[in-house]
From TrEMBL:
GO terms for molecular function: ATP binding; protein serine/threonine kinase activity; transmembrane receptor protein tyrosine kinase activity. The chain crosses the membrane at residues 424-450. InterPro entries: ANXUR1/2-like, Kinase-like_dom_sf, Malectin-like_Carb-bd_dom. Keywords: ATP-binding, Glycoprotein, Kinase, Membrane, Nucleotide-binding, Serine/threonine-protein kinase, Signal, Transferase, Transmembrane, Transmembrane helix. Residues 1-31 form the signal peptide. It is found in: Membrane. Residues 36-398 form the Malectin-like domain. One of its GO terms (cellular component) is membrane. It comes from Salix brachista. This is Malectin-like domain-containing protein. Its main location: membrane.
Amino acid sequence: MVMEKVRGRGFLGVISLVTVFLSGSIGEAQSKSFLVNCGANNSVNVDGRRWIGDWVPNDNFTVSSPGVATTDYTANVDSLYRTAQIFYNGLNYTFAGVQGNYFVRLHFCPFALENYNVNESSFSVVANGLKLLADFNVPGEISDKYLHLQNSNSNSSSLSLVKEYILAISDVLVVEFIPSKGSFGFINAIEIVPVIGTLFADSVSKVGGSDANVSGRGIETMYRLNVGGQEIKPDQDSDLWRKWEVDSSYMITADAGVEIKNSSNVTYASNNYSSVAPLLVYETGRIMSNTEVLEKKFNMSWKFEVDPDFDYLVRLHFCELVYDKANQRIFKVYINNKTAADNFDVYARAGGKNIAYHQDYFDAISAKFNTLWIQLGPDTAVGASGTDALLNGLEIFKLSQSGNLAYDDRIGPAGKSASHLKSWILWLGIGAGVASVLIIAIACTCIFCFCKSQRNEMSNTKDNPPRWRPLFMHGAVLSSIANAKGGVQTLNGSVAAFTRRLEACTGAARGLHYLHIGADRGIIHRDVKTTNILLDENFEAWMRANATETSITSSQALEDLELRVAEDAQRRNCSTSI
């Protein structure tokens, strides 16, 4: 992981290395912290530490192109947040003599600034070439953070924001603040604290797979929780000055877990783990509250909003505070609905009761998701005496990729740059264009096929005279209709004779009569239309049904009908003269 690098040259290098370890000079160098009170010309004491104003000349750091210092002593915030450095151009802080692994914390508090609207601020931050923030808006980040809390408590009352990073620094640390185009940025304080001891290993267990190598990657702290206990303030985490929030704000159902406490004789499994977390974290915990129910199907669940398309390291802290032997509390650990560990026995793994222990897991979040779930539930398959789960602390770290830790919710990881966005837009436009052409082509094809089928049908009745025509197109029928209206209709250039018109009408009547009594399945009235009654060249009626034509055979009933039609026409003295 992020490890201290000490390099020597040849034999002299080896002698120097031994001398360094014997004299403890590295420990002395590592103990040096940098605390900057930005936008101030004086120093302030906060949490028992002295923060130096960046407008005061000193040998600890330098500031290039200072911006505008602003102060609001009426603000209801800690004294550290009553001043700020505002910048419209690039602003650099350079810290010399920095070697090893360091916590780098950036403090922000968007208090009311005269002539400045902090809601419109936007800027980026880069540390030794590693992008930490991109187009960052402090008020928006604070609102988004507390918007996604599962439950409300003291976590949601803070107006300040601290962005924490863990970086390996060889000699000099340069922190650059870059305002977005047409905007400005601000910073209230900068905190640089050395990491004492080994904080991370190079290899981490991958969820659902083998180990993952995470060496050499920058780290951002996303969440740090004291599970089942009260908030741990920075001055309670000696040397490293970390803040541990309460966990209930992130639980799906806080009542799913019961808080437990036992502060007697809690120790670390190894002295190397003393920097991992303070003992206060291991003196409290949370166990399942449904241990007496018949069906052991409930889990303790925590939900966190994270940045998509990044790798994450999840650290879980355990300490068995109740049982004094193994196989009493065995459970499963789930991360993002995947089994990270089963048959998990804290007592067996830690080596006893009241012994602090932690376990790291690696998991990748795809670009499609922005949540990370952590769940603990009973493992009933192993036959333990108790079906329960336990957790004392929880941390989530984001790992850098390609020199980037920043995320812009408009375009994703900032390392993918604007060119990636332009390329994506270009391909989107090409895809939309191709889709439009295909839709138009399909529509034109459908229209062409429909028109062609209509032309083919009409050609069967006009261009190539068939042996039948639809009733509404038959000249004899049309002539009768036209004559009734006082007009004249011709067929093939000659006037239709009375007998032919009478035959046509008789054929039409046969068709209608067939629809009522001749069809096997009875009449469907929607079929009673002129396009479905066909007359051949001899004026015999045919019926169109499901693309086939059925001849209507003459019968006594139809002959009687024809006779009645003729007699009725004579009785009414219907004029059929042309």
